[in-house]
Structure formats: structure tokens, C-alpha cells
Amino acid sequence: MPQSSIKDYLHESQLFLGRVIVSGTLVILILAALIGRLFYLQVENHDHFTTLSQDNRVKLEPLPPTRGLIYDRHGAILAQNLPAYSLEIIPEKITNLDSTIQQLSEIIAISEDDISRFHRLRKQRRRFDSIPIRVRLKDEEVARIAVNRHRFPGVDVKAALLRDYPQHMKTAHLLGYVGRINEQELQVIDTSNYSGTSFIGKNGVEKSYESLLHGEVGLQQVEVNAKGRVLRVLENQPPQPGENLHLFLDMDLQSTALEALGEYNGAVAAIDIQTGGILTLVSKPGYDPNLFVEGISTKAYEALENSLDNPLFNRAIRGQYPPGSTVKPFIGLAGLEYDVVGYHQETYCPGYYQLPGKEHKYRDWKKWGHGKVDLQRAIVESCDVYYYELARTLGIDRLYEFLSGFGFGQPTRVDLDGELSGLMPSRHWKQQKRREPWYPGETLIVGIGQGYFLATPLQLASATATLANQGHRIRPRVVATIEQSDGTMRESPMIIDELQPLNTDHWSQIIDAMSLVVEGTRGTARSIRSNDYRIAGKTGTAQVFSVKQDEEYDEELISKRKRDHALFIAFAPIENPRIAIAVIVENGGHGGSVAAPIARKVMDRYLSGTSRMVVSDAG
Amino acid sequence: MRAKAQLTFHESQPAQASGLLAWLHIDLPLLTSLVLLSGIGLSILYSAGDREMVLLQKQLIRLGFGFVALFALAQIHPANIRRWSPLLYSVGIVMLLSVILFGETGKGAQRWLDLGFLRFQPSEMFKLTLPMLIAWYLADHRLPPNPTRLIMAGLFTLVPVLLIAKQPDLGTALLVGTGGAFALFLAGISWRLITSIGLVMAALGPVAWYFMHEYQRQRVLTFLNPESDPLGTGYHIIQSKIAIGSGGISGKGWLNGTQSHLEFLPERHTDFIFAVISEEFGLVGILALLSLYLFIILRGLYIATQAQDTFGRILAGSLSLVFFVYLFVNAGMVTGLLPVVGVPLPLISYGGTSLVTILASFGMLMSIHTHKKLLPT
């Protein structure tokens, strides 16, 4: 190869030119592929990526509505929203929770209860949720945290409106309270409407009227950066605040009733006869609902839960008591209506009653008997023997049918959650529940409101109002008017369940007898006779069950708790009935001496005009 | 032979007339497009860096250095560049070894050598010295190279590539490797050999996988399926694609890219600046930019064809093609065509010794193109 060591320039440059052309072509082809890719991303999938880019940048933030307020009939505020600061921690952002809490407690007071509540809430919530460690911070505490804030990433002071109940325990059972939404509630509620809300009604009016009080969530579209910080608001759809509720409740009466109960536990239910509006609904003892709003401490809750006085129990609508002699006017009316007795038809009362062919003696409360008794006297003096006989004559079926007409044994369907229905026993019920036939002796004790017979205080008040209305059974209700956010008011509907039309004379006769309970010289409630207006009433006494095995043996306590419950039902004024009331005083002894004066005080307050009705008109 | 070479030489002297430029050894079309590209780069950096002037100043200083290097190298005669090639290469190898032994660790990889007055990335200079060495080694002899020379050239390429890959700096190793490969390709090695090397490389893929660092493997996996880890390693690619795609045909406008300005796009002023351009200027803007790049590459290849000798041809061609690889690897990564490899968008991405290196390589191209009065050796 002669030319092997000599470079062939022409050949080499041609070879090189070829390679450059190949390279240049490849460069153009690859760039074309790149452009194809860009076309695919920017033109073909432009919409898709635009959506993703929008999703990145725009976040929807819920704007929680302000919860509706609750007022009494005179405009006194019962439930409001107060601005409050709380110290909150996002657990996800904290490496060592315990030491963070420890360091925080050096700045502001954090109790054991706060910490345990925090840990309890933490288990229920997701890791990136903000969880309160301290609530209702004072201004000084907020300032102290602000100074140290840089030390605590993931810890923040949050301002929020907190539900507040200025009447504290006076309205606890009636209003209920709001609390943080829990797992079960989360499954029931419309999560989008609650997306900005952390509280929900747990009890009472707060629960029953949750949908009205809550309102509609608002939304704002905000632009955020990659770290989630809001840069500007793009669009704003304001929330629709919850509706305000105006109750029939008269706070004055409520306080009067509570005060009148004094040391006793018990319940008072008072109804405006014309409307069915609940003027007073007291269950004593109560509790402070404000404790529950931000989560009650376990210790405080256990104290309430384990108290023998059972403060969390709403006696007014859930307490089922034997109505005792308070049912006598109703049964008397049944006797007249079924024409098995006349108003002045007499029966002899020897102090006891025996079923034909039976040994057992059914006792009257008056050992030596009332002597000759007609229906009027039987009501005025509360003769048991007369009612044993009347009940036997009527029989359980007619008793059941007639008393059911007054609402016994059924829920009143009041606009409150959790009401119990009491118990109006019947053959059918006994066969169903006890798998036993009905015994004649059981009819007798139904006649004096004992045995299986149970009624709630609200049921008794409602039945009394029905009696005063001569058969118009108006459904009791708590809320009078609903005020929308624009100020328009709408009334809550009045629902009337008519009774079978009865003989007008019979109503008058029974009401006449009930007036004599108060006004007659031998009336069981003669102590509450008023010179200003006329009251129709009926006392009652309910036997208490024997002491339970698991209760602690404390002689004084037990002897007190063994005492009978005192009952009283009444309405007034007789000529133009306005208020119907039922009072139950637990372990109060006799209805006439303990329960009746309480009812009198409430009625006085309502009817005497000293009620704040005038005051509120001025203000 | 000589006459013919001189003939072609004389025919290719169009720039001869323009006196000042010739005296400065400047190729005007190349310089104009490089300045234009740098200017565009600065304006995009202003947007991508959220109007941070400090960023702009620092980049301006680097560009200044780069253009000074360009002018300086343009003055050096290709014969001198050629003469210095083996020495520069050897010094580079020594430096690479010392980086591995004494180097400073930055971002989890040893790349920097602290010379006291400046921190220096020796791997970067191989983007220049490797094509230089291969061109020097092959230019004296008949092309295409015989097997012995071929093997030697292969070894010259492999040694720095492996040393750089060990730092580890996969991006630079790749660019350096392609620089060597292009030099061999332009030297005219047979297509059969090219095919065989391609096959061997493909077969070596799994072996390379075995030697890869965890983060490198992760990048490959993420490339194959970015949605598998949208908040972790896939985040870059997903956000980058969103930025590009949402830019559409006409873009969101300068300074108005939501992906970049709201910080969704990571590394937006460095490796992912291509996505910022796509978002703000759309397909139209990107096409204009790619045209400018294409012009620079084709001008470089044209200079290579017009070069006076084999050394100049191979060097000019390789450097132009390495510039293209920069562009393609970066754009491919940002658009999700290639795995994430830390390669900047040439002359636009913020920072890096690469800016200076790239401008220096164009200085050599200009030197090759403008020193043609002397006869070839």
C-alpha cells in the first residue's frame, strides 16, 4: 500500500462531510421529535395540563357560616357566638409532641386536662388537622405566645367564634350544647356544607334545629403557592348564616322554677295553653353546657356521669315517673264520658278496696277511709278507693283508649331530640313485652297512676293543657319564630291533634273539681290558693323504687332517696286558661305541700304581670 | 494533494474581507446568535428567578467570563490548541484523581476542587479537552483510524468518563463521553463498528444499573413512571409537564407563569428553566428558541466542514454536536422524554462552570474558522 502512510485529504474530507451531513440530519430529526413532544404537551393535551395547573394554583376554601343565635320570648340571649382564641397544634408538623407541649406549658398554663383532651382529639382527627391544646386564651396569653411563636413551627393561635351559653346551667337541658363533630356524625352530615365547620349540635334545641342554626357554607377561591400560602382571593361566595331561633321560653319563669325547686331535684314543664309553646322546661340539677363546647375534661365528665343526682339526665322529657294521682281528673273524665259514673254518684270508701273473691286489700292513702265519696270529692281529696272501683268498671281497654287521647304513652313530638314516650300499659303491651295476660288488679293501680303507668313531666303538662283546652291537644314546641339572616321571621307551625268531641258538661265538672283541689277547704293543694286568679290543679305522689343493690349504703342519703316523688299539675286562670304546668319534685314527699307551691310561684310570675314582658317591650 | 487542499482553503474565505472582525478572529453569525441567546437567557432568568437582581448580576458576570474566554481562545491559533491538547488532557486526569482524593462534596457528590482563589470543576474541562485529545491523536494519521488507534482513542475516552461518573456526576460523564464518541464518529469509524458498540452499550445497561447510585436508579425509575411518586421524585417531572402543557401555543406571558412563580416548579432557574420558557412563551416561543439553537449548531457544523485540517474538523464538529447534546438532554429531561439528568440548558440555565466551557468551545470554533492563512501541516 504505497499510500498507507500518506493522508488522502480528499477522501478524508469527503468522509468527514458525509459524517457531518449524517449528524446534521440526526440533529434536525431529533429536534423534530422534541417539537413533536412539545406539540403533544402544549397543543394536544393543553386543556388537561391547564386544568392541572389550575388545580395546583387555585384552592377552594370553605367559609363557615355563623351559627344562628337563640333568644327567649323576651329577646334575652340564650346561645351566642363569642370570639375566642385557642392554641392549636398540627401534629404532622411536630417532631416531638411531648417536648413541644412541655415547652408551651412554660409559656402559658396547660393543665393535665388540656393535654388529655388534646390526645383524645388527636386520635379522632387526621394528622394534618389542627388540634386545640388550650382554649379560651386570655389576651395576655395570646401576646406571650406571639412573642415566642418563632420557636414553635406547627403551633398557632387560632381565632374562632365559640358557642357560649350565658344562662349556663339554667338552660342546659333545653338548649343542649354544641361540640366537635365526631366520627358518627361525620357519616350523617352533608360534609361539603360542614367543610368549614367544626361544631355540631349534640343535644336539645342545638341538635333538633341543627340544620337551621348551622346555615350554608360559603366558598372562596384563592390562589395559593406550592407551600399552600394564600396569595389572593379570586372569587368569594359568602356563607349564609344560620337562622336565629326565638323560643317560647320565658327566662324569668325558668329561673323562678329553678329557684322554687330549692334543694330538690326534679322537673318543671310549663306550656302556653293557646299555642303549645313551652314557657319553662326545667330539669334539675343541670350542668354548665359551656364545658362541653371545647370538649369537657374526662375528670369533669366522669364527675357528672357518676353523680347520684344524674345532672346530665333531662328529667323534663326523658324522666319517666309514675304519674300517681295526677291522672285522676283524666280517668274521672273517662268515667263520665263512658257513662259509668255520675259526677255526684257516691261510692263508699272504707280505706281499702278488694276485688270480688280476692283477699288482697288495695289501700287508700287515708287509712281510715274517706267515707261516702263522689267523683268531685274523689278528685279534691284524691280518694284512691273511688278510683280503684272506677278503674275496674272502666277496664284497662277503655282506660288505655281514653288516656292515649291525652297523649299518655306516646311521645309529645315536641321539637326536642331524645324525648321518651312514657308508658300507657295495655293488654297488648303486656302480652308483647311481658308475655303475660293482663290481671284485673293491675287495672286498679293504673286507676291511681301507679304500676306500669309512666309519664314524663312534659307529657303531664301537655295533657293538662289539653284538659284546659277542652280537647284541643296542641303539640308542645320550644321554638316560636325563626328569624332568617335577612330579618324575615316565620312562625313555627302549630299542630293540633283533636280529641274525640266530649260532652261539654263533663269538662266543666272535672275542671270544677280541680278548682276545688286548690280552693276547697279539704283540697289537697289548698295552700296555694290565690286571690288574684283561679287555679285548677291536682296533686300526686309517686312511689320510688327500692334502693338498688349497687348504691352505696348511706343511711341518710338512702332514706332521703326512698322518699316519694311529689307531683302537681295545674292550669290557670280557669276562666281563660293561659298556662298549664306539671311539677315533679324527686323525693319531695307530698304533692300538695312541696310540688304545688312551686307551680304557684311559676304561675304567679307568669300571670301577675311582673314578668319581664313589659320590660322587654321598652327595651 | 497540497494544491487541492489549498484550493478548497481559498474558496472558503468569505469572512476575509471584513477587516476588524477578521483581525479579532470573530465569526459574526455565531457571535450574534450566541449574544442573542444569552440575552434571551437573561430575560428568562429574570422571570424564573422571581426578578431577583442578584441572580441576574451573577449570571452576567459568568457570561462576561465566558465571552472573555471565547475571545481569548479565538485568538489562539488552532495549531497551538492542537499542541497543547495532550498536556491539558493529562493535567485534567490528574485533577480528576485529586478531586476524588481531596475534593469537596457539594450536593452529595464530589465535583469541586478548591484552588484557594476559585472552586473549580475539573470534569467540566473534559468537555473541551477530550475532543481536543481525540482530534490530536487521530489527525496525524490516515482516517478512518486503524484498530489499534481506535482502541487507544476508546481508552482515552473511557478513563475520564469513568472517573467523572464515579464522583458521581452522570450528566457531565454523559456529555464528556458523547464528546469523545462524536470525535470518533466524525473521524469516520465504520458503521458496522458503530452498530456493534450500540449493541454492546445496550447489553451493558443492566450492568450499569448494578453500579448506579440509589438516587440515579430512582431517577430512571421515576422517568419510567413519574406518577408512581407524585410528591417525591416524580414531582419534578409532573410539575414540569404541567408547566409546559399549560403554556399552550402562545404561553401565559412573560412573568406570568403560575407554575414557576407560585413555586410549583422546582429548579426553575437552573435545570428546569426550559419549562419556564415553555410556560410563559408557549410553543411559539419555544420554536423560536429552538431555531436559534439549531442555527448555532448548523453554523458550528458548517465551520467544521470548512476547517483547514483534520484536527480542526473533528474538534469543531464534536464541540458543535456536544452543544446539541446539552440542548437535547436538557429539553428531553424537562419534557419527560429522558430521565432526569443534571444537565443545564446551554447559555440559559443559571450558574455552572458549563456556561464558561460552552462559550470557550465556541471560542475554539472561531479560532478554527478564522486562522486559515497558514498552510496546513
Oligomer class: heterodimer
- As laid out across the biggest beta sheet of chain B, the strand order is 1-2-3
Radius of gyration of chain B: 21 Å
Low-confidence stretches of chain B: 1-17
Please name the CATH topology of the largest domain in chain A: Beta-lactamase
Q: Tally the helices of chain A: what do you get? A: 23
What's the helical proportion of residues of chain A? 25-40%
- Overall outline of chain A: elongated
Mean pLDDT of chain A: 86
- Count up the helices of chain B: 15
Tally of strands of chain A? 23
Task: Provide a descriptive summary of the structure in words.
Chain A is α+β, with helices and mostly antiparallel strands and 619 residues long. Chain A contains 23 helices and 23 strands. In chain A, strands 2, 3, 4, 5, 10, 18 and 19 form a seven-stranded mixed sheet that branches. The model of chain A is unreliable at 1-5, 546-553 and 611-619 (pLDDT under 50). The longest helix of chain B has 33 residues, at 273-305. Chain B has helices spanning 2-11, 19-24, 28-48, 53-75, 78-102, 122-139, 147-166, 170-186, 191-211, 214-224, 235-247, 258-261, 273-305, 310-334, 354-370, and strands at 104-106, 109-114, 119-120. Chain B has 15 helices and three strands. Chain B is 70% helix and 3% strand. Chain B has a three-stranded antiparallel sheet with strand order 1-2-3, covered by helices on one side. In chain B, a hairpin with a 4-residue loop joins β2 (109-114) and β3. Classes of the chains: A alpha+beta (619), B mainly alpha (377).
